[in-house]
Design brief:
Blueprint: E1 33-41, H1 45-52, E2 59-66, H2 71-77, E3 83-92, H3 96-109, E4 115-121, H4 128-134
Antiparallel strand pairs: 1-3, 1-4, 2-3
Length: 141
């Protein structure tokens, strides 16, 4: 007695097609955003926050911080006050170089202008309206 078993064929695997970007009238590719963190002298924080307003920055916040260097180290490096301000801003990635150049210019023109600034990329964001606000995009709704 011969029995035949029929094997079912597995469905063929197909690669999912990734849609190519389509350029339609009125639609723009999203602008990449980054978090700009600026650590400056506490008494100069308002100066730097007002400088950021000219670069389409819709969201920024500041909080006070204190340096952690021991007194001996601060004296050695000539740091009198260890009070700092940390400014956290959401900026468009294509404006970062321009902002950092302006910061550098302001650091050198102000008396005792010291600080550090760096960026952290934002990989994802939930909500179209939130994105439009942070990217400074006006919607026509």
């Amino acid at each position: 007695m011969e029995t035949e078993t029929k094997k079912k064929k597995a469905p063929a695997k197909t690669k999912a097609k990734v849609p190519e970007p389509v350029e339609k009238e009125g639609l723009l590719a999203p602008k990449k955003l980054v978090i700009l963190i600026s650590i400056v002298e506490r008494n100069k924080a308002d100066f730097y926050m007002s400088a950021l307003e000219g670069y389409d920055v819709n969201m920024q916040t500041m909080f006070y911080a204190k340096g952690t260097a021991p007194t001996e180290m601060r004296r050695y490096f000539g740091i009198v006050d260890n009070g700092k301000a940390v400014i956290v801003s959401i900026v468009q990635q294509d404006r970062v170089k321009e902002i950092l150049n302006a910061y550098e210019d302001k650091y050198f023109k102000t008396k005792n202008g010291k600080g550090i600034a760096f960026t952290v990329p934002i990989d994802s964001l939930i909500g179209v309206m939130v994105y439009q606000f942070l990217a400074n995009i006006e919607s026509e709704v």
